[in-house]
Amino acid sequence: MMRAMNKREIFKQIALDIAEGELAFPTGAQLALKLRQALDDPDCSLDVAARLIQAEPLLAARVIAIANSVLYNRSGHEISDVEIAVMRLGFNVVRSLVMALVARQMAGVSTDPRHRELVDQLWQHTAHVAALAQVVARHVTLQNPETAMFAGIIHEIGGFYMLSRADEFPGLLEGDFSDWMDYGEEMIGRAVLKKLSIPEAVLDEMDVFWEGFLALPPETMADTLLLAEELTPVTSPLHQLDGMAAGQMQTAQIEMVIGEETLSRILNEAMEEVGSLSQALQF
């Protein structure tokens, strides 16, 4: 009889599988990755990109939704044409949306209610963090907002992949996720991101993010992501201990450095943008 593996052994095995080239994606995620490769081609034209996106109805709907969000539609003129939407957003944002589709579909479809609940909450958390990261980048850390949104989209991608392997390892979703936070998140997250050819500069920022130290005042891309994590109203289900969110700072500490009035103003001004963008990101 095969010996039962503890969670740390499971995480190590999953990371080893990835390192050996065995990155098993659901069909939907594989198609999205092919689309990403096409969009990464510098010779990919606007009309070709639009046709590729239209071939994936879910992505096409999100591209239109983001283009019509408060952040990208200052004029209030709504559009329904994918090519015009791509022109409005630019390829960098579209690539982020493709990666969002990869992340969301990576976990696959399970008949286990516990699994589905975790995936749904993890994606709601991801969408909120991605939206907040862009706002924080523009108003607080002055980092590139598009890169910040991309970082927010991929910051839990290791968790989605871990959930996709849950059926192979009985007991993986039982209990809390302390071993995931302490051991598995960085190990599997980095392995997945490297396999997806995420730029090294973004990987370096993710390494700092996984360390979990938010510098005050926040300045870097990692700080941007960590602050977005602190401010999101939807916590990650993989960062829960006995029903409580793990590692969150007191709001008072953030207010002390940024300034209560400044933080309040930023969040109030950005509330509509964050709500619109996070809703549009909901695959």
From TrEMBL:
Superkingdom in the source lineage: Bacteria
Stored InterPro entries: HDOD, RNase_Y/CdgJ
Endpoints of the signal sequence: none
Domain HDOD positions: 25-212
Protein name according to UniProt: Putative signal transduction protein
